[in-house]
Amino acid sequence: MFRTAFLQFLLFSCLAILGGCLDPLISQPVPAIPEAVLASAGDNRQELEFFLARFGSDPDLATAARFLVANLPLCDRVAMDADLLAEHLVLAHVARNEQPWGRDYSEEIFFHYVLAHRISQEPAQAWRSRLSADLAPIVQGRESMAEAAMAVNQWLATQVEYRSSSAWDQGPLTTLRRGYGRCEETTILLVAALRSVGIPARQAIVPAWQHTHDNHTWAEAWINGRWRYLEAADPSASLDSAWFTSSLRAAPLVLAVVYGNPRSPLDPVYRTGEGYSLLNVTRRYAPTRTLAVEVRDGQGLPMAGGKVYASVFNYGLLRPVASLDLDEQGQARMTIGPGTFMLTAQDETGAALGMSSRLEGEPQTEPTVLHISREGIGPTEVTLRFPEPDPEWAVQEVPMYLEQPADPPRHEDLVALSESGARSLVLDNALSRFLTLARGNSPEILTAWMEAGAVGQPYLAELLAAMDPKDLATTTSSQLLAESQALAFNRDVVALDEVDPDIYNEYLASSRIHWEPYSAWRHALAPVVAPMFARGREEGLSELAGFVAAMGQAQRRDLGHMLTPGQVLAAGVSPTPDEAAIFAVSSLRAAGIPARFLRDADWVEYYSHDIWLPLVLDAPVRVGDPMATPEVAAWYGEPATVQLQVTRRGTHLLEAELRYFRDFTICRLQEGKFVPLYETVDGEWLSDNTLGLTLPPGEYFFIVGGPANQGERQVVIHPFEVLPGPNGLLSIALDR
Q1: Taking a C-beta distance cutoff of 8 angstroms, is the pair 307, 326 a contact?
Q2: 0.70 exceeded by the pTM?
């Protein structure tokens, strides 16, 4: 109620009291919202229409409102309420009009890089009011956008730091509460902070480095008519200079993320979709070249309409950094950075592997031609070349050192617990641990604990113990109470003496399935799945599998997060197989059945009578059948074992030189790209130079790499097949 009243006050203040403060931005007619956008919002359509109606009397604000709604990703269409959308719209206009640089950029820049509420794949949050309140005083009086941007980043450095975390993105407010985040999360926070004071900003990313492992992402700010880059929470106080600057000349590809589809992008469009664009900004960071590819099928004809993947060696894997869409002549071209790229393509008849290598200063090569072979990809050893990092590569800006506060303010979220007086309470060790992990979100945990009372606290403790620390920093007290009450119902229907406590905690009590954002899904799904299981477990399992299989499909987007289970239910669609599987697992847990997501399989598992059984979503009549499909039969049958030895120039590699997801991976070729096994390969060193592997029977690729000469890496791609039982010795040589 308070937030709604505040938004109404803010809205009327801006429109009525300030009057002309919201200067006209756009003179073009207001575009229509595609009916498909509103229809796909499900029950949330009313919220979107209410938001649009709020601003219908003002042509400029109506245009801005339509821009936001027309480009909403599905996860926001089904979940964002009118108040949150209005807060972003109104405060974006206020920031532009209040700051002296607000008229230094065009309406198009404003729409895509200030008004936009979404930055990457984080949950939508009400970050503008919080950040603008903190930052408006800090940028006040700074006439230069560059100076203001650096002041924002220096403030950020007093609030958060880089720290590795789980794979899904937390929202900017969650990063503030925790005081840390990985590079994408601190970048999301910096972009949000810059937008909150009217500075256009966006995220830039290198999907994978080639001279080292991992990837990286940073912020770009539109300053004086060009994009400048900043490392989030870096106190060095210099634009276009960061710890990774020397590595930029080796960047294979740099992409910028855009909300909406710009009418006049300044850089080539790498990929565009419904409501988003990815721009290829590599030329701003590295010497570039044109990658030209041609693919012929098994009959020598153009492979029209297919895809080619360009990959680099990263973490023991040929990791795709780009995908190219083939035209009717089976050809594709794109701008890319220097180095060596492995090219892969696949159709229903076979696969092809090729290579394109060029460093700065070398002549442009002819298009790389790939020929699809029925025999697939044979043993291959290649030398991958890449530029070495160069400390002198980027032109260094003259640093603008800003005054540092003598006593950097502690963020109020990080001291909220002590200010609430909670430290005066006598807490047991378990609750103290939850409060510590929740950091700035600890008041929500404590509120839920006190409201749960003696009866509900045991169930709440089970729920908290099964939560990821990032989820503890995200949840609300109302979500915790709803989930713990639903979990209490599960305890009443589950025969706990038949379920191992570890199974119960990890695969029933836990709200975390995969990489979806945290949500309270039990109370939303329970009324839907309960009738399915009213006639018995087997009937319920079959009905659930059929229900998921019948869901519609939606376009997968690069902007916006995975749908939560509740959002899948609201939308009635699952954009990806992973989201369908997440929904199935959460539905099983909501029905009191332990279940888990499998990254390496096309089905999910449920626990019954001390064993895990398959629930194949596209075969609802074969519930729990370990022979449901050939792939399922291979998975649940006798595993394959193989002994592995790898040599480099005649010398055996030892354990420290042969690490999974560092030096090597075991992969399948799926849809033209190498996909590693994550969970179904086990290894044990049988001797100093022999690694024993256990994995499901099937056809795989062993990919291993190691250093060669300076600026080079040797990589071997070796296909192999394993049958159930022992398979002898697999010997791989890195000889070049």
Answers
A1: yes
A2: yes
